[in-house]
Amino acid sequence: MTTSKDTGTHGAVLQDTPPEGDRPLVELRGAGKAYGNVRALHGVDLTVRPAGVTCVLGDNGAGKSTLIKIISGLHQHTEGEFLVDGAPVRFASPRDALDKGIATVYQDLATVPLMPVWRNFFLGSEMTKGPWPVRRLDIARMKATADEELRNMGIVLDDLEQPIGTLSGGQRQCVAIARAVYFGARVLILDEPTAALGVKQSGVVLKYIAAARERGLGVIFITHNPHHAYMVGDHFSVLRLGTLELSAERADITLEELTNHMAGGAELAALKHELAQVGGVDTAELPDEGALPAAAAAPRPSADGGD
Ligand SMILES: Nc1ncnc2c1ncn2[C@@H]1O[C@H](COP(=O)(O)OP(=O)(O)OP(=O)(O)O)[C@@H](O)[C@H]1O
Ligand SMILES: [Mg+2]
């Protein structure tokens, strides 16, 4: 592409057309993890690109948390390769991952409920002013920065002085996302950020996942929910019993197909058969055995339609 660089009012343009523009930030190649003789993950390929959302789906125990623990530096892979910016890595701790710009937002957010929003935003990385030994917290600058950063992500809170515990779960997730972006994350890992949220709150979190992508981050979005995944995802990886059952680009899979993969088609068909004998349960919408899509996603009808 030969689009001329946007020379707006800001003189300094940060992106100097990097040649590695689409180079994967994070890559797993045949990666796996065994806990003793429990093989939690095996032969998994995964790619995270700048400005892309990679969704990792799967049922309980499928290996989703194990996968992100490898990438976030909590555990080490025991097979295959793990690359960051094209170079093999092996993290000894989450600190190593953070140093590479890989930030993880866990579901049980590490916030202090009674502290104000701005204070939580800087928790552990407070701004200070003045020389030692009279160095003190730079409260004004922290408040102004937190306010600006939240606004940059489109998050408007009435009052940054309110204890973070008074925010909704969705809002707290959003603050955590804005915080990771501010502290220089290039890869953002979200472990089931919408699992405990209602429809509206989930929508808000999905919006900020899209906002993080707009800012060029690579996002790994772990979820049980194919609908949430499909709203923001560029790539979908479905884990099943520790292996990759499906890996598809958005253009190659429909929401229906993704939902069927997630539902575990064959199991649903068996469930339908059982439930039909119970009575009082409407099984009409469940798939029949044999009526399920094949493992590989059928291509969607293309827009340039032949006939
Ligand atoms: N520390 C551990 N020691 C032994 N086995 C483990 C350990 N952590 C996970 N496992 C096993 O590895 C498998 C995958 O677990 P994992 O937590 O990655 O699944 P998950 O997809 O995150 O599930 P959930 O949706 O319930 O969070 C499971 O069989 C689990 O019992
Ligand atoms: Mg998990």
UniProtKB/TrEMBL annotation:
State whether keyword ATP-binding applies. yes
Q: Which GO terms describe its molecular function?
A: ATP binding
Locate the compositionally biased regions of type Low complexity: 289-307
What CDD domains does the annotation carry?
Answer: ABC_Carb_Monos_I
Q: Where is this region: Disordered?
A: 1-23, 286-307
Q: Which domain of life is it from?
A: Bacteria
Q: Does the record bear Oxidoreductase in its keywords? A: no
Tell me the keywords, alphabetical order: ATP-binding, Nucleotide-binding
Where would I find the ABC transporter domain in this sequence? Answer: 26-266
Q: What is this protein called?
A: ATP-binding cassette domain-containing protein
Which organism's genome codes for this protein?
Answer: Streptomyces doudnae
